[in-house]
Amino acid sequence: MNHSRVEALQAALSSSEADAWLFADFRKRDPIAWSLLGLKDVAPSRRWYYLVPKQGPAVKLVSRVEPTVLDQLPGETRFYGPWPEHQAAFAALFAGYKKVAVQWAENLPTLCVIDAATLDRLRGLGVVPVSSANLVAQFQGRLSEPEMESHRAAGVVVQRIKDEAFARVASELHAGRKITEQLVQQFIVDRFTAEGLLAVGHPPIVAVGAHAANPHYSPEHGPVTEIIAGQPLLIDLWARFDKPDAVVYDITWCGWVGDRATVDARYVELFNLTMKARDAALSCVKENLSAGKTVRGCDVDAACRSVLESAGLGQYFVHRTGHSITQMTHGDGVNMDGFETTDTRPILPRTCFSIEPGLYGVPGNNVGGTTYGMRTEINVLVDEAGQPGVFGAVQQRLLLADVVSGQVKLV
């Protein structure tokens, strides 16, 4: 890490209420610190601290057992040994500081990584811990132009594989061959591999019938489930190119398997409402950012959720509206969330996030009493000028995996 990185951290601090930013870690408990500071090729077994003030040089505090562990970082190095010296050296770090940013946020679990003992010691010194959430978003959630282009490039391939997956279902059933959720999932994974893509975290979701009522259903954890006519089908697939700094592309599309005569009108009605909620969230982002206004993650969630609540379906929308997207499917940037948490961070230029309303466990019209689940997901990419856009196709009508023709049509 060079001095320019410290200068970037200090530039971010200049508009913060915090006087300094504390990075404190033990056994890599704080992945954000390691990422922001660019620490590599070290495996410390003792606590270390790195304090970046608004102005002036950074200060390192490390154990005498591991005196060189932060040598790759600029700044003065201080040491501790026995516990009394440790406590005194820790206290000396904060002389003259009233508020210090730390990796902590009441409503953002990905930011809650600083240990309680360190927080207690700060408070015991009269220092007020301030959440680093807004600071982290400026670094962890923002993308370079090559990173944004990697997202777009992945989108071209992911969209094509999504089309191929639905087409595979239609053609196999038309030919009278058995096809299962697991086979479609493996088909997508194989296509990702062939195209140089990597599904980050776990394989894609392929959910037929009532399985789609589980937002995080995954075929590999359950019995082999055959896809048959007369059921809805949800496919959620995400991937990035298998190379450093590539950014994920993440979408969900829904369809009906069978022919037009088997389509449940209630399912179509519900899915249309879900798309309406998605579009309301996107309009909230576009209208506010285009007007130069601040829009927070919780504001987008409210715009989306209100559509489904007004239709009496709020109880079936059981997750946040969207999540930050970076090299990770769920990044550390702003989430579109006023439900699971309240993300009051503003949407920033050069960031990416999903909008993905869903309904889960809604009763259908079918005789068997199956409950339905559905989701529609798009990715919003905000450019350098702060203008949002969606790269790739956006689902506007339910797909039909038509077993009569063996083709994919629109309902």
- Give me the number of helical elements: 9
Shape: elongated
Largest sheet: 6 strands, mixed
Structural class: alpha+beta
Distance between the termini: 55 Å
Number of strands: 17
Q: Indicate the low-confidence ranges by residue numbers.
A: none
The amount of beta strand, in percent, is 15-25%
Structure at a glance:
With 411 residues, the chain is of the alpha+beta class. The protein has helices at 3-13, 31-37, 83-93, 116-124, 133-140, 145-174, 181-194, 265-290, 297-310, and strands at residues 20-25, 48-53, 59-63, 76-80, 99-102, 128-131, 197-198, 205-208, 231-241, 249-258, 351-355, 358-363, 371-375, 378-382, 388-390, 399-402, 407-410.
Task: Describe the secondary-structure layout.
Elements: H1 3-13, E1 20-25, H2 31-37, E2 48-53, E3 59-63, E4 76-80, H3 83-93, E5 99-102, H4 116-124, E6 128-131, H5 133-140, H6 145-174, H7 181-194, E7 197-198, E8 205-208, E9 231-241, E10 249-258, H8 265-290, H9 297-310, E11 351-355, E12 358-363, E13 371-375, E14 378-382, E15 388-390, E16 399-402, E17 407-410
Parallel strand pairs: 1-5, 3-4, 5-6, 10-16
Antiparallel strand pairs: 1-2, 2-3, 7-9, 8-9, 9-10, 11-14, 12-13, 14-15, 16-17
Helix pairs in contact: 6-7, 8-9
Protein traits:
411 residues, alpha+beta, single chain, 6-stranded mixed sheet, 32% helix
Task: Please characterize this protein's 3D structure.
The chain is α+β, with helices and mostly antiparallel strands and 411 residues long. The chain is built from 9 helices and 17 strands. The strands form 4 sheets. It has a 6-stranded mixed beta sheet. A hairpin with a 5-residue loop joins strand 2 and strand 3 (59-63). The longest helix is centred in the middle third of the chain and has 30 residues, at 145-174. The chain is elongated and about 75 Å long. The mean pLDDT is 94.
